[in-house]
Amino acid sequence: MSSSKIQVRGQPLLRVPARNHRMTHLVICGVSTKRHHREINALSSNSGPSLDSVPTRTDKRQFLRGDGNGKFGRFGGKFVPETLMSRLIELEDEFNFVRCDHEFQEELTTALRDYVGRETPLYFAERLTEHYKNIVPTIEGGPEIYLKREDLSHCGSHKINNALAQAMISRRLGCSRVVAATGAGQHGVATAAACAKLSLECTVFMGAADIEKQSFNVLSMKLLGAQVISVEGTFKDASSEAIRNWVENLYTTYYLSGTVVGPHPCPIIVREFQSVIGKETRRQAKQLWGGKPDVLVACVGSGSNALGLFHEFVGDEDVRLVGVEAAGLGLDSGKHSATLAFGDVGVYHGSMSYLLQDDQGQILKPHSVGVGLEYPGVGPEISFMKETGRAEFYTATDEEAIQACMRLSRLEGIIPALEASHALAFLDKLVPTLRDGAKVVVNCSGRGDKDLDTLIQRGMPSSFC
Amino acid sequence: MATASTAATFRPSSVSASSELTHLRSPSKLPKFTPLPSARSRSSSSFSVSCTIAKDPAVVMADSEKIKAAGSDPTMWQRPDSFGRFGKFGGKYVPETLMHALSELETAFYSLATDEDFQRELAEILKDYVGRESPLYFAERLTEHYRRENGEGPLIYLKREDLNHTGAHKINNAVAQALLAKRLGKKRIIAETGAGQHGVATATVCARFGLQCIIYMGAQDMERQALNVFRMRLLGAEVRGVHSGTATLKDATSEAIRDWVTNVETTHYILGSVAGPHPYPMMVRDFHAVIGKETRKQAMEKWGGKPDVLVACVGGGSNAMGLFHEFVDDTEVRMIGVEAAGFGLDSGKHAATLTKGDVGVLNGAMSYLLQDDDGQIIEPHSISAGLDYPGVGPEHSFLKDVGRAEYFSVTDEEALEDSYGQTKEDIPYIGIIYKGIHPFAFSAKGSDLKDDNAHHDHESYYGDRDTESLVK
């Protein structure tokens, strides 16, 4: 699906020649951009924000809300067909209402506690910390590594935080049916579970390639009563199909977005419901060591678990935010999902953000061993964080992720999902640069049971002893 | 206490007390212990307790009538007594070489029970590593499903042991025993496993504590549970296949015991269930008792009272004991264990030890077990791999005989049906995939349960391993 421009109600049509829809890219706030980014030529001057309205790092409001149209700086927005606009506005109204609705919040909190199993622990990974101490000899101690155990949530990943809350919203909107798209299957399983719990019909779209790789999750979805529809391709194609299905059944169906992409208000909704991760972390950090984390590390596919952890701390300038994307077979191989490292700005699935596209503006096929990271785009708020320099983004290859997965299994008895393993992999590079006693919190966003087949296929040695 | 039921395959326990003593058969398949070439002499030990009891009149094998006569007051029961007996069940049927290790273990266990440092460390690990406490979840749709026409019906709660790290209750015990082993200075851990869940839990805690880990698993089980074998290896454990006997759990247990006999100085044996020689049944139960303790607290918070009924599936019996133990003295709380009836109790392919078994000695303890007329162990079967153990914990045998707990069974078919709610076509009611589905099939029959807070222990791994067989 090419990134097409659609007229946004109330705003002039962005004149984007199909072949050359690069956005103005300027150095902002003196923060240098990654060298892979191309300095691109401008669009017509009456589109996009003007230079002086580009927010600086200290413009917290942009981080916390986006503006009224869901813009984070120049990213975000609502690039959707007219037919969807009223639905989106309805959704936004409902969301704003439930945010302050005592009854909804109480029901959600109870469900998060009793059904999902929150709060998830903030676990001091002693042996992993020790491991880094030994390979990076320092005088005193080295940093301390903590894991936020989203792998212990019901269904095995952070996805349920959002799926459950949105399923509750869909019921309030009077929808009887929910559609969703899933890559690794985690969001699909979470949605299917939430729908079963709330008596909603559930249809999940999944790429055929992904169905093969994560058959485990497919069976789970079916057992939970969801209908799983195979779509040729991967997550991006399944997303497109799900959106199409939603548009066709607009009044009975709720589109349950699994991550912080899509037209406004989807990115904000997902981020809000995931922000429980960061809120708990703040409280737990206070209890454990009487302070804040120094560094937060999370893997970035589209960005939901990262934003879930980061959002709470965006205003805390002394907390470093580090996102790790998938470098797949290597950044030069062309087979990766490193959107922020290699992408250009464009519109995809309803919002403006960085995305992996070729010179013709065609979407590139992403790759990663962590199926949940295989998305050619990234959430607009993440793009904004990168552009303003509030967060730093790096990458880890398939191989590094697999090694990290094996390492955590052996040292801590926790088998992380391959997606989360990317965040863990980056510790190798991060730890030597940190001061002694620095508190690092890594979001262990999911467990790795779904990835055992992949690890076996990769010829991981079956015996260690 | 047993309820009547009209369902054909539903068999409450009805073995009469007096038949017990005459059915005391030791199966000839006792674990075979090869004599050690260099027998370790325990000169410092004054123990030479023989494995048959009855020197001490206080420990004469009482039949359940006597126990009942002594008072159906559970607080008077010794669970276990100093010889590790629950009534006539339990005990320490092991070779002499293990006696010292067992009493060392017992001593260590008792002293750690009052050791504040140990308790604090354990509590911290259970919270931050395992993810306790596990929620007591009100299963709204399931409750609705069982509501009768007149609107009455029990309120069904699930104790969410599936949310623990590694997805089952097994880790509670594994973590505690690993900590205990460290205290004892042991660096090497061995364990047996059937379905692999206990093996994974053990491998997990060994990785966490940096202990060497060897898991014994029946070769047949290894094939059926290849994914769990991989998991254990990924976690750094060595998985040794056992080919003797029927190459399943009981043989793996025997092999593990054999290893322990050989390496007892350096090695701790993490037994996975409330079976085996004393002090294991007591120890494993006490380490799982956190389940019941939390439940009491949560029940009080949620509805200001106690549960009326506790339901749990029974393989070896550890999750059931973990839930029940806290409430044994509360006689108004009904306790129900559900075993696996496999293809049906008459098919010969099931694991309903308490319903169809006879008393004998297996893997170090006297308990009910599935044996044929020659005292040979009958190979059990259940679609739930973790339930097919031909024995059962001695404390369960005791609770059954004194009538404190009731034991029923559910077939593979009934269990599968219920995981879908009613039939395969219906949408599942909860959104939780479970292996411990047996208790729910039982619910379908327990239609005479009154308006009370039935509390079901949901124990299961997130059912990941079972999704394939369930979807078929």
UniProtKB/TrEMBL annotation, chain A:
Cofactor: pyridoxal 5'-phosphate
SUPFAM superfamilies hit by this protein: Tryptophan synthase beta subunit-like PLP-dependent enzymes (SSF53686)
Catalytic activity, as annotated: (1S,2R)-1-C-(indol-3-yl)glycerol 3-phosphate + L-serine = D-glyceraldehyde 3-phosphate + L-tryptophan + H2O
Alphabetized GO MF terms: tryptophan synthase activity
InterPro entries: Trp_synth_b_CS, Trp_synth_beta, Trp_synth_beta/beta-like, TrpB-like_PALP, TrpB-like_PALP_sf
Domain of life per record: Eukaryota
Protein name, UniProt field: Tryptophan synthase
Species per Swiss-Prot/TrEMBL record: Arabidopsis thaliana (Mouse-ear cress)
From TrEMBL, chain B:
Annotated EC: 4.2.1.20
Uppermost EC category: lyase
UniProt cofactor(s): pyridoxal 5'-phosphate
InterPro entries recorded: Trp_synth_b_CS, Trp_synth_beta, Trp_synth_beta/beta-like, TrpB-like_PALP, TrpB-like_PALP_sf
GO molecular function: tryptophan synthase activity
Keyword entries, A-Z: Amino-acid biosynthesis, Aromatic amino acid biosynthesis, Lyase, Pyridoxal phosphate, Tryptophan biosynthesis
Keyword flag Chaperone: no
UniProt domain Tryptophan synthase beta chain-like PALP: residue ranges: 132-416
Residue span of region Disordered: 1-44
Catalytic activity: (1S,2R)-1-C-(indol-3-yl)glycerol 3-phosphate + L-serine = D-glyceraldehyde 3-phosphate + L-tryptophan + H2O
Bias-annotated ranges (Polar residues): 1-21
This protein's pathway: Amino-acid biosynthesis; L-tryptophan biosynthesis; L-tryptophan from chorismate: step 5/5
CDD domains per UniProt: Trp-synth_B (cd06446)
Matching HAMAP family: Trp_synth_beta
Protein name: Tryptophan synthase
